[in-house]
Design goal:
Radius of gyration of chain B: 19 Å
Order of helices and strands of chain A: HHHHHHHHH
Strand content of chain A: under 5%
Helix content of chain B: over 70%
Number of helices of chain B: 7
Number of strands of chain B: 0
Largest sheet of chain A: none
Oligomer: heterodimer
Structural class of chain A: mainly alpha
Structural class of chain B: mainly alpha
CATH superfamily of chain B: Cytochrome c oxidase, subunit III, four-helix bundle
Distance between the termini of chain A: 14 Å
Distance between the termini of chain B: 55 Å
Helix content of chain A: over 70%
Number of domains of chain A: 1
Number of helices of chain A: 9
Shape of chain B: elongated
Order of helices and strands of chain B: HHHHHHH
CATH architecture of chain B: Up-down Bundle
Strand content of chain B: under 5%
CATH topology of chain B: Four Helix Bundle (Hemerythrin (Met), subunit A)
Chain lengths: 229, 196
């Protein structure tokens, strides 16, 4: 019972994956509209799906609450690590908290784009550009956050480590999969465009895998640290 | 001595994972991602074979081959360094690692020259699809080379005295990563520079 709060937060991962994923799917943003579409085509997408996009984005916002909860409980557990300093736990929390913004603002901008279907198509295209170019290249906070988990997992001197070492290496790998999204600033077609194989499909998969994977890892840590206390 | 041999023979049968098992998550993960890169390249290439053939002709095969030789040589040097370190020949291990690092630096230098040559000739990542792949794939690989060089510097710093089993494991991990960097380049060289 003492750990119920932490367990609820840990389940924020799958909760976020489910609601954010459902929100994107019902908005028709899997994959996102191509960067090569004209202003009129973009405006038509928002006009025709306005209500589904608005509702989908509300779902997405709810999901982001789950991400915040997961970030915090990971740090709660990382404080039990036997590391030279509290840096890994602190960096994970700080970077994760800022990462929330790069998920939340694009979500809001997409809803804003759908809010007024009658506006000038060029403006809707601009909002669409802003939203996708906010979220797809947003690797730095996740690099720092997943990297902090990796540093913690790999330097933890506990006899019964909080996270297994392979989870540390996996966090490095998942973080690196988000980096190609940065090239979305440069390319409008191909695998690096914001709807492309590497910038969207691989990067989004990496983020969702992280959300779903960190939950059992954190639950296991909660159970073990609670037993030891 | 006999016990050591028996133990070695038993190890051979039990099978041993070089480095630490968790590291292989990254090694296989990276192979998976580059495998995806290569499939992506092949699929896009089928869409416009002529363009890819024309653009490929602009690459400097000589410099590509030189870089391949540099990385193969440095991989060999690392393969000499690790057993040397294991058997306590720290001096030999350090010399071999230094050789590997110099070859790696040579690779970086050649790549910088090559990029400069291309950019001065007006070939940039946005010129066409081929150069988008060329610059992004070799650029991501170059980041691997830099990370690998940092790992080799770590290896070199450990080449003194009799190493502990923890050191051996860490050094093996670095060596495995360097071999990964090498094998990825060999495939990149084949598909970007040679594949007709």
């Amino acid at each position: 019972m003492r750990t119920l709060d932490q367990k609820i937060c840990a389940w924020g991962g799958p909760f976020c994956a489910a609601t954010l994923g459902a929100g994107l799917l019902m908005s028709g943003f899997v994959p996102p509209p191509a960067p090569t579409l004209s202003a009129e085509q973009i405006a038509a997408i928002y006009a025709n799906n306005a209500m589904m996009i608005r509702l989908g984005m509300i779902l997405g916002l709810a999901g982001i609450a789950g991400f915040i909860a997961l970030v915090c409980v990971i740090t709660t557990q990382m404080r039990h690590m036997d590391t030279p300093s509290r840096l890994p736990a602190d960096l994970q929390l700080g970077a994760g908290a800022i990462g929330v913004l790069t998920l939340m603002f694009p979500n809001m901008v997409l809803a804003i784009a759908a809010f007024r279907p009658e506006r000038d198509p060029a403006l809707t295209q601009l909002l669409n550009d802003i939203a996708w170019l906010l979220v797809i290249p947003a690797f730095p906070t996740f690099l720092a956050q997943f990297g902090a988990i990796a540093i913690g997992a790999l330097t933890d001197k506990r006899a019964d480590p909080i996270f297994p070492r392979w989870a540390g290496y996996l966090n490095i790998w998942l973080a690196l999969l988000l980096v190609p999204g940065a090239f979305a600033y440069i390319f409008r077609t191909g695998p690096f465009a914001w709807n492309g194989l590497l910038s969207f499909w691989i990067a989004a998969s990496a983020f969702f895998v992280w959300l779903i994977l960190m939950t059992p890892l954190t639950l296991s840590a909660i159970n073990r640290t609670a037993k030891a206390a | 001595m006999i016990t050591a041999e028996v133990a070695a023979a038993r190890d051979k049968h039990a099978g041993r994972v070089p480095g630490e098992p968790g590291l292989w998550v990254i090694i296989f993960g990276d192979l998976l991602v580059f495998g995806l890169f290569f499939i992506t390249f092949a699929v896009y290439r089928m869409g416009d074979v002529g363009l890819y053939a024309r653009a490929q002709a602009a690459l400097n095969q000589g410099l590509g081959l030189l870089n391949t030789m540099l990385l193969l040589a440095s991989s060999l040097a690392v393969a000499i360094a690790v057993p040397a370190l294991r058997s306590g020949e720290a001096g030999k291990a350090r010399r071999a690692t230094t050789g590997a690092i110099l070859c790696g630096l040579g690779f970086v230098g050649v790549k910088v020259i090559e990029y400069g040559e291309k950019i001065r000739a007006g070939m940039t990542p946005t010129s066409n699809e081929f150069f988008m792949f060329y610059f992004s794939f070799t650029g991501i690989h170059l980041l691997h080379v830099l990370a690998g060089l940092a790992a080799l510097l770590f290896v070199r710093s450990r080449c003194s005295g009799q190493p502990t089993s923890g050191t051996i494991s860490a050094v093996e991990g670095c060596a495995i990563f360097w071999h990964l960097v090498d094998i990825l380049w060999v495939v990149l060289f084949a598909i970007l520079y040679l594949h007709q």
